[in-house]
Structures are given as structure tokens and as C-alpha cells.
Amino acid sequence: MIIQEVIDLIEDFAPTKYAEDFDNVGLLVGDSSAEVSSALITLDTLEATVEEAIKKNCNLIISFHPIIFSGLKKLTGKNYVERTVLKAIKNDIAIYAIHTALDNQYKGVNDMICEKLGLKNRQILIPRKDSIKKLTTFIPSKDTDKVREALFAAGAGSIGNYDHCSFNIQGKGSFRGNEESNPVVGEKGMVHFEEESQISITFPSHLESKILKNLFDAHPYEEVAYEISSLENKNQHLGMGMIGELESETDEEAFLKHLKDTFKSGCVRHSKLLKKPIKKVAVLGGSGAFAITNAKAVGADIFITADLKYHDFYKAEEKLVLADIGHYESEQFTKNLLYSFLSKKISSFALILGDTNTNPIHYL
């Protein structure tokens, strides 16, 4: 396989279109047409990670965090970012990062946290807006099934736990072709009326080009009439954070100790304990202070995240417990998620789970 084929698999699972605007995802270093020998899957790409890739004969690093986050104006090796990139280039090692595209996936970073905690009834904490579109098109009645199935095959018509969803209306369309036209039905220069179906079908926005290709390939008309609109609906299977429930209520202190043990945290910083049982749990891997209000709004008993600042803890307002388990600790299982997914898709070369500890924080 070439690198681009691996990228296509990853982005089918976690489309980079849904990465946050501030992020830098995708192929950061390397040639997408190069053949893959082996791939190292890791949380971070550092000099030590590149060294591991060299020792294990990997020419592709699949990383959660991007080593290049803000722009690089020089490559002189003066800092750890430049040294890492230079080492990768010198050794013909490509670097790919997925970051917030995976954060926003239903089966992504936060689902892994929920899985480790055994949470049930999981839902997205902050559902993504502006990610659902609607296609409306008009098709000769006899060709409706063919075109509809082509749209379904491209991923249209999936809503939550349902697929093959569409709305259909029968009617009569009219048109007249000029001398340059080549009508499938009717004659040039003559007004023609045709029994047609109007299909309305929703689809995730990242599939738009694929949806349109299938529409044009399957549609019999020389000129295809269609319109696409963006919907205000929130996407319940895409977005930041997750909320779930424990099998049974548990004591606050007992749960915090369980949290520390499960994620092997050097410490768990938390807000004031409320002397109430923990049942409903909100999580957001990485820096999640921005979601405190959302966690309170859904009635969470505790919100688990990382990188909380001093004043963030005041925002608990005795409505829930805030628990900071550490940035690395909250995302450490992400590489396992990527490894598990790709292992089911790839058998033509070795996938290697990186064992370099890239946590920059240490505890006494």
C-alpha cells in the first residue's frame, strides 16, 4: 500500500473535514505516493518517536497529536519541533496526524474514556453543528430506484441508527432542449412533460463530492437538476466530549480513586466534593475547560478532562465535580484505538504500536 491509501482508510473513519479550525491535521511530512514498509502508531511524534520508527524500520508514523501545530518558518533544528521534522525528513519517514478529527468522532477519543470507565447510554456532549446537508433532486420515475440506491451506496440517507432514509414525492416535470441539447427523453425544441420523482435525502457534509459523483453517474438526464442545502440539525454522532452513566451509583472518593488507577494518573486534581453519589459522567479528553458549562447543562455529576486552570475549578459552582486527570492520561489509549481500527483493515504490512512514553509531565 502507498501512504495515501492508508490516509484514505483513516479519514474514512475520522474525516479531517471535522477537525477544529485551529488544528493542523493530515500528512505533515512526507510523500503520499510513497510505499509503506511499516507504520508506527503513537500519541505524539517527538525525536524519540522518530528514533523508534528508525529502529523498527517504519517509514510512516501515524500520530494523534500533530508535531507541526503553528507555522514553521525555518528548519534549523533550534527546537524540538524542528529537530523532529528534520530527523523524519533525513530518514524518509512520513508523519500523519489526526488529532481533533478523531476527537469529534463518536467512536473516537472520548468513547475510549467511556469504555475504560464502563459507561452506558453514551451520547455526544457537544453535538456538532453544520455537518448535515440535504440533497433534493428530480428523477424520471422509472430510474428512481437506481438513483436512490446509488445515493445510499455513497453514504446518503443515514440518520443516527437508521439508514436508507429518504423522502419521495411523485410529480410531473417539464423541459425543452435547444439545438445543442441531446435529451434522453423528448425531442429538441419541443416542450416535454415527464413523470418524475423528487427525492430529498440527507448526508454528512464530508461526503458531498462522493454523493454528487454517484448522482451524476446514475442519473439518466444530460442536465441533472438538484439543490443542496445545509441543515441546522445537530449531529448526534459527531462532536466534542461524551456523556454516559455508570452501571450503579458510586461514592465520590471511591470513583476518583478508581479514575486515578484506571488512567494511571500521577494525581487527580478536583473541585470540591459535594457528598453526592456519582452516576452521570461527562468526559472530554485533552484540554476541556470550554465544556464545563455543557457538562453542567446535561446534569453530569462529574466532568473528567484535563488542563484545568485555577479559575476553571470555580466554574463547578457546587453543581458537579470537576476532575483533571492529566492531558496525556486522558488520551493515552488513542493510539490503541487507531491500532485496533487499522489492524482490521490492513494486512499488507506491519502495524506497530509505539512504546515510547511521550508524557512530558512527571510527578514526585
From TrEMBL:
It comes from Christiangramia forsetii (strain DSM 17595 / CGMCC 1.15422 / KT0803). GO terms for cellular component: cytoplasm. A divalent metal cation binds at residues 65, 103, 327, 331. One of its GO terms (molecular function) is metal ion binding. The keyword Metal-binding applies. Transmembrane segments: none annotated. Keywords: Metal-binding. The keyword Iron-sulfur does not apply. It comes from the Bacteria. Homohexamer. This is GTP cyclohydrolase 1 type 2 homolog. Belongs to the GTP cyclohydrolase I type 2/NIF3 family.
